[in-house]
């Protein structure tokens, strides 16, 4: 089918995630038609380096034969098996066991979902159930962090702290509360790590005091805030927040939907942060985006309390596709890749990526460079001293994305002038260097824009 007839069909029928529907109709879809390794090809034959791994998910790169083989073999052997009625399938059981082996501490129990949003949503339900089971149903208040993203389910969207996910949707709910982000580049307390940690600890303590510790059920945080603009907390931040929660008997959820599966280096960022959360949520890299799958990891204590609390009664939480055998088979093949070199390559490529991005720090538009492993960002400003964001007319989200695209590079261009990077972990050094070269070209072109030039400090 010709690309332009696809554009018409898309315009007429396909509802896109997080899009201005009218804006998208006017712009028209860009159709991707094939991909291999870190390179995707669009319907016009243009090849692009995917510096964002789809949506921070294609960690193994495209057209990985072992993943394709795992899926096709499982499709012909057993395309579906429910986990209801006491049934199961070998891939789901084996994947849960292998994940439990890799997960930090006693996070030994895995509930499979279809992605990140329903993983977060499942934690809300498990947490409520847990507190009922221990006889404290009044512990029903939830805290998360400004600029955080925890998906767009009816409940999870209220833990998310990005206004566009709230407006018009009636969230956050009155049981969902926020504390300020650690956002080091623009933190009112300054950029010193210890000071930021102390401020976040004080904010969390104050919020707990305001609500009453006996009412607070759980605290949610991403090891690195992804959709909020790749905001990297100072080392020790997660540990400090975890300690406050422990002190007040508040459950701690590490939302590792982006950071899990090698994105920051290890299989779980929580391991690097030195914490064993009560729950981890994961998705994306677990199946490298080839097939949908997410997971909730539950600690022994949480699992046992829920199990004993229910006694012989069933726990009313489930989905038709929980533990889907095809997704699980791909998950197992992904784990093989992670264990046999993909994590190592990701670490190597991540060092190169950060080195490359730091080499852009002296560019007139680059105010901040940050990242960990293969998760990084640069933040653009027109005045480095004042940290003045690009002018609104520069329409950074659209213009820079389009420009990078024209230069053969896919990145995430956030509206506030932040460029996000999350390349496949399989990238070669040459591919990383190309990402940097094409970024530099994109920045140089942006520097020539009239509105940007006009706003630049002389
Ligand atoms: C930290 C975090 N949690 C949850 C989600 C939601 O995941 P999904 O889009 O698979 O529903 C995302 C998605 O980007 C995420 O980054």
Automatic annotation (TrEMBL):
Superkingdom field: Bacteria
Keywords linked to the UniProt accession: Aminotransferase, Pyridoxal phosphate, Transferase
Presence of the UniProt keyword RNA-binding in the record: no
Keyword Transferase: yes
Molecular-function annotations in GO: pyridoxal phosphate binding; transaminase activity
Needed co-factor(s): pyridoxal 5'-phosphate
Entry's family note: Belongs to the class-III pyridoxal-phosphate-dependent aminotransferase family.
Record protein name field: Aspartate aminotransferase family protein
């Amino acid at each position: 089918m010709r690309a332009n007839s696809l554009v018409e069909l898309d315009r007429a029928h396909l509802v896109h995630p997080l899009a201005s529907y009218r804006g998208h109709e006017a712009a028209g879809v860009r159709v991707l038609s094939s991909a291999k390794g870190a390179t995707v090809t669009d319907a016009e034959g243009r090849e692009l380096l995917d510096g964002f791994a789809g949506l921070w998910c294609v960690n193994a790169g495209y057209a990985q034969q072992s993943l394709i083989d795992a899926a096709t073999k499982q499709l012909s052997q057993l395309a579906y098996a429910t986990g209801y009625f006491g049934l199961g399938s070998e891939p789901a059981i084996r994947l849960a066991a292998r994940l439990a082996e890799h997960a930090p501490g006693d996070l030994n129990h895995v509930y499979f979902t279809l992605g990140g949003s329903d993983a977060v949503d499942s934690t809300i339900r498990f947490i409520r159930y847990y507190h009922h089971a221990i006889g404290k149903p009044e512990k029903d208040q939830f805290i998360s962090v400004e600029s955080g993203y925890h998906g767009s389910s009816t409940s999870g969207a209220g833990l998310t702290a990005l206004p566009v996910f709230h407006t018009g949707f009636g969230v956050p709910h009155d049981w969902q509360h926020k504390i300020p982000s650690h956002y080091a580049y623009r933190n009112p307390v300054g950029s010193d790590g210890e000071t930021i940690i102390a401020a976040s600890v004080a904010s969390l303590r104050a919020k707990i005091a305001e609500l009453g510790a006996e009412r607070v059920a759980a605290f949610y945080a991403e090891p690195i805030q992804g959709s909020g603009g790749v905001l990297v907390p100072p080392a020790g931040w997660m540990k400090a927040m975890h300690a406050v929660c422990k002190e007040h008997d508040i459950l701690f959820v590490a939302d590792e939907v982006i950071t899990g599966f090698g994105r920051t280096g290890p299989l779980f960022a929580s391991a690097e942060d030195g914490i064993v959360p009560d729950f981890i949520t994961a998705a994306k890299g677990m199946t490298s985006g080839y097939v949908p799958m997410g997971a909730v990891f539950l600690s022994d204590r949480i699992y046992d309390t829920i199990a004993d609390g229910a006694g012989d009664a069933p726990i009313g939480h489930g989905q038709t596709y929980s533990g889907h055998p095809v997704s699980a088979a791909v998950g197992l093949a992904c784990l093989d890749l992670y264990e046999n070199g993909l994590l190592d390559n990701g670490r190597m490529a991540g060092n190169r990526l950060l080195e490359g991005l730091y080499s852009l720090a002296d560019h007139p538009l680059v105010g901040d460079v940050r990242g960990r492993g293969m998760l990084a960002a640069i933040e653009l400003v027109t005045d480095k001293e004042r940290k003045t964001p690009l002018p609104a007319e520069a329409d950074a989200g659209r213009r820079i994305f389009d420009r990078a695209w024209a230069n053969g590079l896919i990145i995430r261009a956030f509206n506030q002038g932040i460029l996000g990077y999350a390349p496949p972990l399989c990238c070669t050094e040459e591919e990383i260097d190309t990402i940097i070269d094409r970024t530099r070209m994109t920045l140089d072109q942006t520097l020539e824009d009239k509105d940007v030039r006009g706003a630049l400090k002389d």
